[in-house]
Predict the 3D structure of the following.
Amino acid sequence: MKIKSILISQPKPSTEKSPYFEIEEKHKVKLYFKQFIQIEGVSTKEFRTSKVGILEHSAIIFTSRTSIDHFFHIAEQMRVQVPDDMKYFCTSESIAVYLQKYIVYRKRKIFFGQKRFIDLMDVLCKHKTEKFLIPVADIHKEEISKLLNSNKINHTKAVFYRTVSSDLADIEIDNFDVLVFYSPSGIVSLYNNFPDFAQNATKIATFGPNTAKAAKDAGLKVDLKVPSPDFPSMTMALDHFITEQGKRNGI
C-alpha cells in the first residue's frame, strides 16, 4: 500500500521547520493535523467533593504549565487566598518561570529540577516536613506517587483538570492511510468519535508503550511503535516506514 495521507493526532506545528513538513515534501504525502483530545478544568463543585483543602498544604508540586493554570483557577473560583509563604516545587525551570503569571516570582520560595520528576527528588527530600499538594489530571502517571511514597514524603494528589475527547466530526477517518497516536486518550477519542471504526488496511503508529498497549487493547494492530533503538522520534520512524512501504510497492 502506498502511503498518501497521514493523520497526526496533534495540533499542527507552529514552525515551518518541523520535521513533519520535511516528510511531506520528501515523500509527497499529505499530512493532516487534528487534536484528538483537549483539557478542561473540573468544576469547583466537583473539586469540593474530593475534600482536599488547599490551605491544609504548605507546598505545591507542579509538573506542567497546565497544572499551574488549573490550580490557580480553582483557587480563585473558591476564593482561596494562597499564602505568600507557600512553597512551589516544579519539575523544570520553564515551568517555574511560568508561575510569574500568578505570583510575584522573586518574593516566593520556588524550587525546580532539570526536567524529569526524579531530578526534583533531592530537593523534595530536603523538605520532608512540608505537606505537598500535587494538582493532576484525571489520567496521570502513578510513578510520581510511588516515588514520593518510597521516600516517605507526605503528599496529596488532587484532580484539577481532565482529558476529554475532541469533536472529530469534521474528518473522514477512513480516508487516511496512517493514523498517528501519542497517548492512550487519543485511542479513546478515536472510538468515542468513530465507534464503528474498522482498521482494515489502515496503518497505526503509536508513541510510548502505554499508547501502544491502549491500541492493542482496543483491538488495533500497531504497525509502528516509537520510540525504538533505531528511531527515537516519530518523524524519523515515519520517514523510514514510508520509504519501506514504497519499496514494497516498487515505488
Remarks:
- The CA atoms of residues 39 and 89 lie 22 Å apart.
- The two ends are 10 Å apart (CA to CA).
- The chain has two domains: 5-36+168-248, 40-163.
- Residues 5-36+168-248 form a domain with the Rossmann fold fold (CATH 3.40.50.10090).
